[in-house]
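To illustrate this point, we now present one chain and its tokenised fold:
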Amino acid sequence: DDGNSDKLRRESQSLVGFEDLGDALAADNDYTFIVKLFAGCAFASYIIKYGEVWFDFPFEAELDVALAFIFLPSILNAFKWYKRSQDPTFEGWF
């Protein structure tokens, strides 16, 4: 069991995407997880609430920006999984 937790810690050093968050948060206790969850939700809520003050693009009808928000993350995710299928040791770019 100790070898398994060491392996999880080594693998979680380089997060590749949201699917790896379970391994990264496995070592946290309940209180640490709740604090991280609350902080993440508060930060995301703040950005969503006041992001409209900083950026005008949500209120302008720009098809290019809307399509970029939809397709760019999807294309990057598909490419990441393509690279992983070609090379199982691929851990991401950073």
Observations:
- The first helix runs from residue 2 to 11.
- The chain has a mean pLDDT of 76.
- The helical segments are 2-11, 21-25, 30-54, 63-86.
- The CA atoms of residues 31 and 37 lie 10 Å apart.
